[in-house]
UniProtKB/TrEMBL annotation:
Pfam families in alphabetical order: Meth_synt_2
Protein's recorded name: Methionine synthase
Domain Cobalamin-independent methionine synthase MetE C-terminal/archaeal intervals: 14-338
Record-linked CDD domains: CIMS_like (cd03310)
Organism domain of life: Bacteria
Gene3D superfamilies (alphabetical): 3.20.20.210
Length: 347
């Protein structure tokens, strides 16, 4: 067993994953410049097929290939142009990140870098089998996808660490997790149903992936109905969850107990606070920080927990933002994170 690794940084800002535009060099330089404490390897979905979250995740799969069907990405027996294109996007993004890392003088610094992928449940929900059904409908295929993704992310993280001289943390995006547990996913046709997966089975699959990746893992979900209790149960030593990422303004009263239990269990919260689109003027840092302050007040925690257990991120959907506001959103995240980390009790 490898030595114990530190967890996610706290009191800092980071991004979710996607970014507007098509230029990986510009994106890498911006993210490293604005998110000095925890930059991430961005996704640029505006480039098209293979550059979105599912295409990027497909490029990480080991011994499994993807192609494009009329309804989405599909598993195929052999690597073709779509899979090669997704892998090429990933290589260009990593090369651009390495160049920007070198220009910033960060090689060998041991700085932390965040890597993202769709999680195994969302990947199983979005990828199709050869016959057109979701992978999620075939338990064996779902396990194969989870194994392949876990190994692919482990190898990817090791390569990034080697090339940058950095320490990698991992984020799995699971927007379909509530639908997988609730059985609300529709089949690809009127004759195709997708049954709910039992929570223990889902938890076991996630723990297996986390353990294989062997790095601090965050789970990101921007959908309503986040299974807080299950996520809290995933914190089980090295295979446990280090952080949970969500859009804070979307929380309801029904979510509060679950969020509080995560804090009590020692899980870091990645709060999506900064809007990704503007309706008029840009918010001031105090307006954004107030969302976090009111949350911990409602939970009954001292505000000092914001310095000990919280990161600040944009909300979901930054890839659809104007590029100038995307940069502004990262700066605002950084300003809010600094304020919450320094003297939250005085805010």
């Amino acid at each position: 067993m490898s030595e114990e690794r530190p967890g996610y940084p706290v009191g800092v800002a980071t991004g979710i994953g996607s970014w507007p535009g098509t230029d990986p060099r510009e994106a890498a330089a911006t993210v490293i410049g604005e998110l000095e404490a925890l930059p991430h390897l961005v996704e640029l979905p505006a480039r098209g097929v293979g550059a979105d979250m599912i295409g990027r995740s497909g490029a990480l799969l080991v011994d499994i290939a993807i192609d494009l069907s009329t309804t989405g990405y599909r598993l195929v027996p052999h690597v073709g142009s779509v899979h090669r294109g997704a892998a090429d996007h990933l290589r260009r993004d990593l090369d651009a990140l390495e160049e920007a890392w070198e220009r910033a003088g960060l090689v060998g610094s041991g700085r932390v870098i965040k890597l993202q992928s769709a999680g195994p449940l969302t990947l199983g929900a979005e990828l199709e089998l050869t016959g057109g059904k979701r992978v999620l409908t075939d338990r064996g295929a779902l396990r194969d996808i989870a194994d392949s993704l876990a190994e692919g992310m482990r190898v990817h993280a090791a390569e990034v660490e080697r090339r940058l001289g950095a320490r990698a943390v991992v984020q799995f995006d699971e927007p379909q997790l509530p639908a997988v547990l609730g059985g609300t996913l529709r089949g690809r046709s009127a004759f195709d149903s997708v049954a709910a997966l039992p929570e223990p089975e889902v938890a076991h699959l996630l723990e297996h992936v986390f353990a294989t990746v062997d790095r601090p893992v965050a789970l990101h979900c921007c959908a309503p109905g986040i299974p807080w209790k299950m996520l809290r149960g995933l914190k089980s030593g090295r295979s446990g969850i280090a952080a949970v990422s969500f859009d804070a303004p979307l929380l309801t009263a029904a979510d509060l107990d679950g969020v509080g239990e995560l804090i009590e269990a020692g899980v870091t919260l990645m709060l999506g606070l900064v809007p990704t689109t503007l309706d008029g003027r840009a918010p001031a840092w105090r307006e954004v920080a107030d969302v976090a302050l009111k949350l911990v007040d409602r939970l009954g925690f001292a505000r000092g927990v914001l310095a000990e257990r919280v990161l600040v991120t944009p909300r979901c959907g930054l890839s659809g933002a104007d590029l100038s506001w995307a940069r502004g959103a990262l700066r605002l995240c950084r300003d809010v994170a600094t304020a919450l980390a320094e003297e939250p009790e005085r805010l």
